[in-house]
Design brief:
Elements (H helix, E strand, L loop, with lengths): L1 H13 L11 E11 L3 E11 L10 H9 L1 H10 L10 E17 L8 E14 L6 E4 L2 E7 L1 H5 L7 E7 L3 E8 L8 E3 L2 E5 L9 E7 L10 E8 L2 E8 L4 E7 L2 E7 L4 E7 L6 E5 L2 E7 L2 E2 L5 H33 L1
Parallel strand pairs: 1-7, 12-19
Antiparallel strand pairs: 1-2, 2-4, 3-4, 5-6, 6-11, 7-10, 8-11, 9-10, 12-13, 13-16, 14-15, 14-17, 17-18
Length: 335
């Protein structure tokens, strides 16, 4: 029996096992960025997977679902285009990863110097608040905005195949340049639009730098969260600041408190002798949060404490009385 078991184990080890491997693939990357006069940038990401021979894999449902599941990784790459600290960037996903069959994506899959156009795009749109990014610098009445190719920044074998920049809704392009200088310049240029077709890593710029006339407010209310708790005649307010370090103003009724909250930190403030009402939070440039309604926190009153003491004393009295009664009964029995 022992020999038979050993033979069976050996047969299992030597028998062929089928393993379903995920096909190796590459992804064409196309980006459209729209800078808006309100200090935001709308980023559209368009992806199209293909195999080693340049054949489209957009019909591979398993692969497409896998790319969709990795959406958070792509969001991080987008935020890294604007900041070295992606966790501090304020953004909003306007469209999650969606397969758009009528869209097209371009790249040079076989490094032949010719672009191929693929039908179908796995697309998503992200709105980035530029005031929460690192690569923005004030210049007189305009801003210098740097956009980094976060793919080639982390792996020289990767780059953005196509990227377009549109300046609209109050954003005016003043000048532009790119780094390194030996990389190729834009393929298409107009007053408020630029685009690059990048055939290889050497041609693709690492950084796209623009001087733009636009308005970038210092704070956006999505960078600040707050909570308030009512306890007696006091309201305790907690501020959580995910943006830049700044002063904030807490207004409750006719009382206002000024407090400094560092970037990435929180602060608790208690304001007493106030009537129940909405709490308003102001930044240095205006109202950030309004109609913050405090939740209630139960605090026992003096009467509640007194009643508790009465029950406690009554309980102790019963225990003491029971002790003496038993002692007397014992003495009577002995007599």
């Amino acid at each position: 029996m022992k020999k038979l078991i050993l033979l069976l184990l050996l047969a299992l080890l030597l028998s062929p096992v089928q393993v379903r491997a995920q096909p190796r693939f590459w992804t064409a990357l196309n980006f459209e960025l729209e800078f808006r006069g309100d200090g935001t940038a709308l980023v559209e990401v368009k992806q199209h997977p293909f195999d080693y021979a340049g054949r489209s894999l957009i019909g591979n449902t398993t692969l497409i679902n896998m790319i969709k599941e990795d959406e958070s990784d792509m969001i991080r790459y987008v935020l890294l285009m604007f900041s070295n600290r992606p966790d501090s960037v304020s953004y909003k996903v306007m469209m999650h990863s969606t397969l758009l069959n009528n869209e097209t994506v371009v790249c040079d899959p076989l490094n032949t110097g010719r672009l191929s156009e693929y039908r179908g795009s796995l697309s998503m749109r992200i709105l980035v608040y530029l005031n929460s990014t690192d690569f923005v610098r004030k210049i007189d009445d305009s801003y210098e905005i740097t956009v980094v190719d976060s793919f080639t920044e982390r792996d020289p074998r990767s780059w953005i195949d196509y990227i377009g920049f549109n300046f609209s809704k109050g954003a005016e392009l003043i000048s532009y340049r790119w780094e390194p200088s030996f990389a190729k310049g834009p393929t298409n240029v107009s007053r408020n639009y630029l685009s690059w077709y990048n055939y290889n890593e050497r041609d693709a710029p690492d950084r796209y730098i623009f001087e733009v006339k636009m308005t970038i407010k210092r704070e956006v209310k999505w960078l600040l969260s707050a909570s308030a708790v009512l306890s007696g005649d006091c309201i305790a307010v907690t501020l959580n600041n995910k943006g830049n370090s700044s002063y904030f103003y807490i207004s409750i009724g006719d009382q206002t408190r000024k407090v400094y909250v560092g970037s990435g930190s929180s602060k608790n403030i208690k304001i007493c002798n106030v009537s129940l009402g909405p709490v308003k939070i102001y930044g240095e440039n205006g109202l950030l949060l309004e109609n913050l309604t405090p939740s209630h926190s139960f605090v026992p009153s003096t009467a509640d404490y007194g009643l508790s003491y009465v029950f406690l004393l009554a309980g102790l009295s019963l225990i003491t009385a029971s002790f003496f009664i038993r002692k007397i009964e014992k003495q009577l029995q002995q007599a």
